[in-house]
User: Fold this.
Amino acid sequence: MKPEFIPLNGYRLFDTDTMMERAKAFYNLAKLRRTVRDYSEKPVCRNVIDDCIRAAGTAPSGANMQPWHFAVAERGEIRRQLREAAEREEQEFYESKAPQEWLDALAPLGTDSNKPFLETAPYLIGIFVQNFGILPDGRRVKHYYATESVGIATGILISALHHAGLATLTHTPSPMGFLNQIFQRPKNERPFLLLVTGQPDENALVPKIERQPLENICSTVR
Ligand code: IYR
Assistant:
């Protein structure tokens, strides 16, 4: 197939000062994001969620296959099922499956198998990776770098929700197979993670942990 090109639309050229200001402003916003486990039950307008998912859908992806699906669970009976299924897996994780080393790594976060937010937060977003696509005639289309692509899209989604004033929690019940059934997703989709979102409870607490400075996470070669 012959590629078709169009002019790059909407590119904004900034002078260096403006660029530095914008980079700093984005960092100052990003560093306020915290993973939140205590949610308010206050409703959040669904349009906000949809626009954040639209933003996630702009992520780059292998061969532009856009191998993601975002399944939104609003509050209702499904949420009770989700909580029950996730807590069942988590109980096994914390009580028997997790090696001591993993439990030690989680200790500073104060997490346990109790996940009330799965039922009370206004939205849960089940994020799925399409390992391959399915054409209308049933043939399979190969997807490239599907996991990386969905990881990038998820990063944009978390940033968009944070920018809109919503807190998030990246939750990874393990194993996550039950998510296909509850979200009614087909077999070519693999659960990637469950994103909890809403406003934080007014008394929400977060663990006292630090982020590494630039020197630790960045190096330079010439
Ligand atoms: N899935 C469990 C355990 C857990 C694992 C990691 I890695 C975390 O950063 C946090 C929790 C849970 O959600 O409690």
User: Anything to note?
Assistant: The CA atoms of residues 13 and 19 lie 9 Å apart.
